[in-house]
Amino acid sequence: MKQSELLRVENLRTYFYSQGRTVRAVEDVSFSVQQGSTVCLVGESGSGKSATAFSILNLIPKSMGRVVAGKVLYGGEDLLRISQRRQRTILGNEIAMIFQEPAAALNPVCTVGEQIAEVLRTHKQCSAREARRQAKAMLDRVGIPDAQRRLDDYPHQLSGGMRQRAMIAIALSCRPKLLIADEPTTALDATVQSQILGLLHELQADTGMALLFITHDLSVVAEIADRVLVMYAGRIVEEGDVMQIFDDPWMPYTRGLLKARPGLHSGDGSSRRLSAVPGDPPDLANLSIGCSFRPRCCHAAADCAYRPPDLETVRGHSVRCMHWRQIVEAAGEPEAVL
Amino acid sequence: MPPEMPEAQRIELRAKLGLNDDIATQYLRYGEALLRGDFGQSFFSKRPVVELFMERVPNTLLLTVPAFVLSVAIGLCGGLWAALRHNSLFDRSLTTATVVMQAIPNFVVGIATILIFSLSLRLLPSGGMGTWKHFILPVITLALATCANTAHLVRTCMLEVLAQDYMRYARSKGLSPAVVVLKHGLRNAILPVLTIMGLQFGGLVAGAVVTESVFAWPGAGRLVIDAVMKRDFALLQFGILVFSAAIIFANLLVDVAYGLLDPRIRER
């Protein structure tokens, strides 16, 4: 099946303003999502992953900041420039989102059934009865037992995993073409996490929707991604297919992240110490002109401090580092991380 | 008892009212009478206090009910709009106005409106009951203090709710702004407001007592004030009893409504 482009983000810039400072949360981010594919947006907290997701949906609170530049092209339209009315026909319908904390995102005073039904009534003009019937079918579909009774439950009556399932049911009720998942498994324990990932995978195979998955967890990325975007300090620093990123990472930051991942096999059987990427992410309100990863990079050279690196693309694999060739060569065979 | 009363009459009256018994006995006698539904008679008109009181209650309701509705309407709309337009000119003016309004006592507002609208502009009557024009000043006076309180609280609660994840989530579902703000926002923000509304009912009753006096409104509040002035204890006691019962009932109503609106309360 020939894949075609579903969503393209071009030169997105989102700034937050607080106490007279400008925080450059998303800086010149471009990428595209193919129909039915899974794109993972990876990075530490504060790297601009969630800000990118909320910018795509134009949901950055006005009191906090705004998208200052860029385009989000979807079906020939720029989601950032169409009318709010038009936007609302796409949100929750063709592009749906699930949040990190279902406990905070679900309305505490509305029943689960009502929260699914209202999406169906808004976008599919269903009758209340039909919406309720479909809501029950959705709860069944996402594996919530005793769905008929759960319809009348409130979010606080469900467990964390069930709440995330309910949120997935809400998101998928209108059969979206793109699902944006903002760290949907971070708040869950490991067993539930793999159940939810399995469910998402299954639903994706079923409906053919694309998935933009935001996470800081590389083991999740290895499991589900087709394409990986690594973000650092608001920029994409490496982008490639999942094999390119895991087998042959170019950017020193990505290499560091992969090393920081607990692995089951360490080759010679001895236990390998986890090596975290040293240092802290930079202050996004006060970025230097050079490479923003330079202070934490063990390969930093003199020119890294004043020359901003461009995104360089070779065979569909992009990297934002001036010295990546030397670094990869010097390191020789990358460590077996997969 | 008026001080100029002759000594012989005074002794006779004390015996008749049972004032020579000790306090505990008097109190028990009063309590027992209450249980029998006997609330006593006014010292002056010699009519049962219940009858006197009930004659006046409709007038008070005519004043407090519209005032309460007006207060809630203005408070909700004002507070909501200020929260949605946070830091706008409207928001700032409303916040300032609510602080000022909460600081000014009821009777000052009443007297000020009389000065302006009755004496200077000669637009509205300064007191008494009769035409619809008589309602305007007392209702507004009574509503102003509580509506400032409500507006302030609605604004604060709504601002807090607007920052919640579920509001952004509701928007991400493509719901209309009205649904997002009213169904997902206000339903959550209204809960603490409801508690205060119950407490405000007490303030409204107190306000009615003052407002009725200022505007010479023949309601239950003024009856109680008159009872205080004339030391008509049986009437005063009954007035306080009714007001207290009303406030307790209002708070009970709030608790029940709270349970209906917030499923998390219902569980416990």
TrEMBL record, chain A:
GO terms for biological process: peptide transport; transmembrane transport. Residues 7-258 form the ABC transporter domain. Belongs to the ABC transporter superfamily. Its main location: membrane. PANTHER family: DIPEPTIDE TRANSPORT ATP-BINDING PROTEIN DPPD (PTHR43297:SF2), OLIGOPEPTIDE TRANSPORT ATP-BINDING PROTEIN APPD (PTHR43297). One of its GO terms (molecular function) is ATP hydrolysis activity. Keywords: ATP-binding, Cell membrane, Membrane, Nucleotide-binding, Transport. The keyword Secreted does not apply. One of its GO terms (cellular component) is plasma membrane. SUPFAM superfamilies: P-loop containing nucleoside triphosphate hydrolases. The keyword ATP-binding applies. It is found in: Cell inner membrane. Coiled coil: none annotated. This is ABC transporter ATP-binding protein. It comes from the Bacteria. It is a peripheral membrane protein. The lineage of its organism: Bacteria, Pseudomonadati, Pseudomonadota, Alphaproteobacteria, Hyphomicrobiales.
